[in-house]
């Protein structure tokens, strides 16, 4: 996906970054164990897109669980090919946070450049296997702040008893400077964060379909 509001534009280059091993990451986690134990937190694999490195995240999560560390997979669910590795990754994911960008495919393609079919199929699969899931939905003025989209998203999610909550996130411009630093135009220049009234309206609609909606 190429989200127009991506605040991690610098992660799109798959050949950039620093290569590390699972053991190195586990060593980096050691100083934070006391904090994680006290807060009930754990390790979240995010991105970019964590599923692009499914084998590595699986191995990392296996080691985390072996040491009693909670694991969370933060993903847009755009799984190109559902392989055994995906199931193995889900088996060691205590929680999946699934970003659904837009329930309507045409708007989804305008917003992120690809169809939402794979994401929605992944949501259905998470329900099928009973995977503990939180849904995240970014409210972007002009793209995802309309009432019909909220109703249709709510109807889609209503049968999914594996979804513990829906988290609404107001669009922000905090990643705009990264686009500028890379010499690129920010696609949503001029789009402002949604108002409190808009957030409350979308929240109220989704609460008709799910009993726990937060923002």
Automatic annotation (TrEMBL):
One of the GO BP terms on file: glucose metabolic process
GO function term, MF aspect, one: metal ion binding
Ranges for domain Radical SAM core: 1-208
Keyword tags: 4Fe-4S, Carbohydrate metabolism, Cytoplasm, Glucose metabolism, Iron, Iron-sulfur, Lyase, Metal-binding, Oxidoreductase, Pyruvate, S-adenosyl-L-methionine
An example Gene Ontology CC term for this record: cytoplasm
Entries under PROSITE patterns matching the protein: RADICAL_SAM
Cofactor: [4Fe-4S] cluster
Enzyme class name: oxidoreductase
E.C. numbers: 1.97.1.4
Task performed by this protein: Activation of pyruvate formate-lyase under anaerobic conditions by generation of an organic free radical, using S-adenosylmethionine and reduced flavodoxin as cosubstrates to produce 5'-deoxy-adenosine.
Family under the similarity heading: Belongs to the organic radical-activating enzymes family.
Name of protein: Pyruvate formate-lyase-activating enzyme
């Amino acid at each position: 996906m190429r989200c127009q509001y991506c605040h991690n534009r610098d992660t799109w280059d798959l050949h950039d970054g620093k290569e590390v091993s699972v053991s190195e990451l586990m060593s980096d986690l050691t100083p934070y164990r006391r904090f994680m134990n006290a807060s009930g937190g754990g390790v979240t694999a995010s991105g970019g897109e964590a599923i692009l490195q499914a084998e590595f995240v699986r191995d990392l999560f296996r080691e985390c669980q072996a040491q009693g560390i909670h694991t969370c997979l933060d993903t847009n669910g755009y799984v190109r090919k559902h392989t055994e590795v995906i199931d193995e990754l889900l088996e060691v994911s205590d929680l999946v946070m699934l970003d659904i960008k837009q329930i309507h495919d045409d708007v989804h393609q305008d917003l992120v450049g690809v169809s939402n079919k794979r994401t929605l199929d992944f949501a259905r699969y998470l329900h099928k296997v009973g995977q503990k899931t939180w849904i995240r939905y970014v409210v972007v003025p002009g793209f995802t702040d309309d009432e019909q989209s909220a109703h249709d998203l709510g109807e889609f999610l209503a049968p999914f008893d594996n979804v513990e909550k829906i988290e609404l996130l107001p669009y922000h411009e905090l990643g705009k400077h990264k686009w500028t630093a890379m010499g690129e135009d920010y696609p949503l220049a001029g789009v402002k964060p949604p108002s409190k009234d808009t957030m409350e309206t979308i929240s109220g609609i989704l609460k008709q379909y799910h009993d726990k909606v937060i923002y």
